[in-house]
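Allow me, if you will, to draw on your knowledge of protein folds for a short while. I have a record of one protein: its chain in single-letter code and its fold written as discrete structure tokens. I should value your view on which stretches of the chain appear to form regular backbone elements. Thank you for your consideration; the sequence and its tokens are set out here:
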Amino acid sequence: MDQKYRVKTIVTNSGERLPILLGLNGLPMFEPTVFSLSEVRSRNRASNTIYSYLRSVMVLLLFLDIRKINLDERLKVGQLLSLWEIEELVAICKLPVESIHPLLDEIQSISQKVASSVVSLERLRKRSYVGGETSIDGSSAATRLRNIRDYLKWLCLASISKHGVNISLRLSLESSIQHTSNAIEARLPSGAFKHSRVGQREGLEPEVVSKILKMINPRSEENPWSDEHSKCRNELIILWLLNCGLRRGELLNIRISDLNFREATAVVARRADDPKDPRTNQPKVKTRGREVPLSSGLIDKTNAYIMNERSKIHGARKHDFLFVASDTGIPLSIPSLNKMMCVLNRSLPELDCKIFPHIFRHTWNDKFSEEMDKNKVGEDAEKKARSYLMGWSETSGTAATYTRRHIRKKAQAASLQLQRNILESSHDE
């Protein structure tokens, strides 16, 4: 199949990023578009949330095509999905989208050869992408199913609200959506591993940070990048992430005009739907805007990058975003930053952990906790300082997510000391 469902993000004149779902004919689909505008966008949800909903709806449409289910005809008689169809929908929602489109292709191919055969969706699922990722994490699959549940409920309510719908059909639709919602809710992947204390995301160990910094030094023979701009830019990116604990969206939003070289500070500003940002998938500042301090070493390196490397890229003169693409000079994109991290991972195969932008935010929080302990800063003052620098509200409980390593080490140290005390007391007796 040449044509596929896909979600495309358009940029309006006001700068708003608006995702839309395109059908197999390449045109926007009516019901998903109305749903995203009336039920998601109208609640001031971010474009990424709209995108997530439409990707989920796309998975539902692929499932309906695979199973040859005409949902419009079913709605006319007050029906949605049977229990066994919901079971198969749950199985489909656990697959990467890239492996669902081929399922539809194979179903159609088999149907053309053996029109009367019943194809096992589970059999095709097991055969898809052998050797690759066979499923997404439970949390993502659960989000898909909740989004699909919301969309199906909206379709039923839209049918009920139509003029001339009789009481019998309305009751059937209400019963169907209740049955479908309950069935989906009961089958949501638990994602229990997400809540396990073992294996949760933590910052990098000091020796790992040292290896990374040594390799990305522009003068290092181990540096994996060839051109001088990429070497200097990528080193600076890692230094910003390590020293400031920024999210990737915050980092890619930094502009030269946000920097105060005299005061050695940088403003992290929220600029949602910025018409001056040429990136369709605009990096966003999810947390509060704030001013972060920069060390003299970091501000000097930043200034050197701007004057000596960024200035040589012709396209970079058209805007003032700090980090730019080496070839075109356009603002560095999220996929480009992710690609840079992939290069880092390939260049350091001996590491036991995976390098990605957000892990440096965890590393920063570990270092911040250590500094607060050294300076004997009180718990309340530490929480307020951390919340400000990370862009959280003072009452936010998010800090617990970023202090796991520090808490674990303190707990282990306390436990070892307790054991030593017990052993010493037993010897005294």
